[in-house]
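One-letter codes give the sequence; the integers encode the fold. A sample entry reads:
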Amino acid sequence: MNITPVFEVPWERQGVLTPGLPILPPGVERHPVPGGGSRAVAVWRGDEIMVLDREGMQPVEMVFFGPDKRSDAGRLGAKGYGRPEGIIATLNNGSRSGAKVLKSLDAAGFDIGRGDAIRALGEGSRPGDMARFTAEQDGLLIVAAPGGEMGPEGEGLATELTLYIRRADPKLVKMTGQSHDPLADPILDATIMPGEAKPYEVRKGQYIQILDVQGRECSDFQAFSMRALDKGLEREIDPTTTRALMGNLYPSPGIFSKYWSSDQEPLVEIVQDTCGRHDTFGLACTARYYEDLGYPGHVNCSDNMNAELDAYGIRPRGGWPAINFFFNTMLDDANAIGMDDPWSRPGDFVLLRALTDLVCVSTACPCDVDPANGWNPTEIQLRTYKETESFQRSIGYRKSTEADVEETKKTAFHECFARHTRDFIEYNGYWLANTMTNHGAIAEYWACRDKVAVMDLSPLRKYEVTGPDAEELMQLCVTRNMKKLSVGQVVYTAMCYEHGGMIDDGTVYRLGETNFRWIGGNDTSGLWLREQAERHGLNAWVRNSTDQLHNIAVQGRHSRDILSKIFWTPPQQPTIDELPWFRLTIARLGDLSGPSVVISRTGYSGELGYEIFCHPKHAVEIFDKVWEAGAPYGITPLGLAALDMLRIEGGLIFAGSEFDDTTDPYEAGIGFTVPLKTMEDDFIGRAAVERRKASPHRKLVGFEVQGGVVPVPGDCVRVGKAQVGEITSAMKSPILGKVIALGRVAPEYAEPGTVIEIGQLDGLQKRLRATVSAFPHFDPTKSRVKGEYASEMA
């Protein structure tokens, strides 16, 4: 669902597609330019330069410097516009891309202030539009995607560009997928070819980067405590100890990130991982493995490791237990261990930090007789870095299979919540607080139910939908009637594929006659909107504003009182006190001169609440004012664990639990978002949804579970021996004092009061007695959300 540039096609052979391995024509390079960021690339005479506008309406500004340190737009056959203000702004906005470009300029001795700006694309450009230039001499090219601070209605938004360079001399091409820039100045930079192993020493605090150059290649890794070796002891990473102490199949960046020896000494920790699929069960490939397949004498990683480690006095082994980075292991229902092609793509890597002095060994696996390396062994790049480098913890995230990998980001409110916890987990490409130190999920939950809580919801995906056909696009893509949506109104809705399965649920904010904002849980929905605009030839733009619009939710009975004290609204906008449910207002912090925000009376807690959207640079100031005003009311920070409890009680659905792309809105329990009787217009998936509604196969219901055992999502729901459904979410409700659950069942068993059993172990050996109930379990009339606390349940 991403726009595929004309230069990129997925790798395909005999009907096997691998979209994660894009192919470019020979001699063509690809360089992403982030929105509000920049890129510096060397070019040579005759090179063709092409800049792609991925989302539309994004201007590009370029500067070209020749070897004489002069800048002249005419050297690219273009018109000059003088001083490159857009590039200068991006270089000074604090972005990582700007820092890299400044370093390149300083190294070359170029003065960007004397650059001759080239401008293209921008107003009116469509997704996929491209500007083309040709270099008339060698030089350095600077490309920027400028944009200012985004306003509350989406103005000033900066989105990504892609720079392609078709080299005039193919020998000069930096082949995409065959060369990847180091993260910093490396101490060691070595290429390990398939069938080779590389030993190396690393000091405490230094970093190790193991990079899959072309994708789908495994690398076995082992590390030995140098202190133990000096004592004549071999103490290397022990996969079993590591799994036991970390509670995961393999560690990942975050709290549970360390690899341990059998003496329970931490040897390395993983800092960054762009792949997220590795193995800690199997051995590095062995001579016996190949011999048993009929390949005697096949080169193998274990023998290679033995040969290289002999210099350190490490005894040889028939098969080395190792951390098999990028190896794709799986366990099936019969407990058999299998494998398939790796998940890694060109440039994927893991970054480790040494926790003590180490002797390490890394390999590039030579296996070419099974899918371990995608049937095509390729090289591994090994780099080490100084302990003085600073690398953020990160788990790779991609908006789609074809998209560039992105680091896990900190929201603009991250440091505000970091005052209260170190327990952050990765959520859709961002670090979010899970629980708060000295509070805990139950205390946070009660704060929201009894007083007021504040939570970070910045990872929600925001897409600006604008243009003359914006309403028509939204009417086509969501199940609610956009023609009835007033400016300033918010509506909760579903988005479906043609077969009726849900893409996402989310809210639509109407900011103007031709301005909508889609807020959903994932990027798939935003990319789908953009794809439909192009497919149907609509005069509408869909641009990602997630990183320029961060938000906190203030939820609980005192939320209105707090916000009304600190936010000013202009006369034409409703005040906080006047704001009704599912409405928005444009406000400012303090007074007319304060930072601008959008405040909507919405939430995900089942309580009276509001969401505050702001530009990231104002986030800390806004949080501090909310915190200060909330202190007399006992305001408490709230993490994901408590939020999950609140939403289950309130019957609020969650992607991957209550719905996925096989589930229609009725099966997901939100049939009220599909007004089939009153909405005459067609929407994508309507015919399928109508057909599925007439003949339902599953229905979302509540359960009240006897005893104190909390079911696990995926547990089967049974009547006798027959499975009639499955659990989607469950919890022990603090306010109700019992175990409750949500789940999908066959319509025949969906009537409240129906007695069922929830199967555990294999679904038959352990049963939890339960009764079907209506949902939401708590506050079914939504009185608390409406602010009617006099009629609350307690």
About this structure: The chain is about 15% helix and 30% strand. The chain has a mean pLDDT of 93. The longest strand covers residues 722-733. The first helix runs from residue 85 to 91.
